Amino acid sequence: MADTRTEELGARVRKGDAEALSELVVLQKSRLLGALERKVGAGLRRKMELDDILQETLARAVRDLPNIDFRDQDPIGWLYQVMDRQIVDLHRYHFEAKKRDAGREVSADRPIGSDDSPRGLADLLVASMTSPSAAVSRDMRLMRVYQALEGLTEEMRNAIRWRYLENLPSQEIAQRLGKTDVATRVLLSRAIRKLQRAVGDS
Questions:
Q1: What is the pLDDT along the chain (202 residues), one digit of tens a residue?
Q2: HSE on the CB side for 202, CA within 13 Å?
Q3: Residue 157: how many CB atoms within 10 A of its CB?
Q4: What is the CATH number of domain 2-96?
Q5: Which residues have C-beta within 8 Å of that of residue 133, sequence separation ≥ 6?
Q6: DSSP output for 132-193
Q7: Cβ 35 vs Cβ 80: under 8 Å
Q8: Domain ranges of the chain
Q9: What pTM value is reported for the model?
Q10: Nearest to 157 by CA among 123, 127, 122, 185
Q11: How far apart are CA 67 and CA 187, in angstroms?
């Protein structure tokens, strides 16, 4: 029965169905977590839970899905490739990147996400991504992020704030939104994809 369901979801994923991709990850969660158990070293595990790495893998897969040609690969195999790339990127972020400048950190005296406006959220997001060497372009980046956030629904803005600024797990965000965990992950992926298209490579 599970194999039949996997085949059904795989067929939908091949057609670019992001909801089916999320359901496929849930169905294969134990196998995917088992693969992460073997692939992720102790250092990265001290930084992130395996379940969070799996969530980020799903978000990345949903983001990449529209551009994937499945003629030469199956969805499950592709998911493992996405997972491998995510692990490499996370390792680079946590262990190879230069130490963040103190000026990039959000002040501990101010509750994260305390400004609920798109402009306030944009300011927090840009503060988390801007390095001193990029300070000259910060105002331009801030405006582009602000404009992109204006184009999102309030639900999407709240989901982004809770996940990426408050680091809440998707299950808790789902409870706050009154959605399923799968639907919440898809919502987050779509919101990030919209932001990326609006903001561009910067």
A1: 567 889 999 999 999 998 899 999 999 999 999 999 988 888 888 888 898 899 889 888 988 898 898 887 899 999 999 998 888 888 878 776 544 443 444 443 343 334 445 555 555 554 444 444 343 344 455 566 767 777 788 888 888 888 877 778 888 899 989 999 888 988 988 888 877 776 664 4
A2: 19
A3: 19
A4: 1.10.1740.10
A5: none
A6: GGGGGGHHHHHHHHHHHHHTS-HHHHHHHIIIIIS---HHHHHHHHT--HHHHHHHHHHHHH
A7: yes
A8: 2-96, 102-199
A9: 0.51
A10: 122
A11: 19
Tokens of 101: 């400048």
Cβ neighbourhood burial of 103 (10 Å; 0-12, 13-18, 19+): exposed
CA-based nearest residue to 188, from 201, 200, 202, 166:
166
Q: How many CA atoms lie within 13 A of 67 on its CB side?
A: 5
- Other beta carbons within 10 angstroms of residue 88's beta carbon come to 11
Contact 46, 111 (CB under 8 A): no
Alpha carbon 10 to its chain centroid, in Å, reads 21
SS3 63: helix
Query: What b-and-e string marks burial along 170-185, b requiring 16 or more CB atoms within 10 Å of the CB?
Result: beebbeebebebbebb
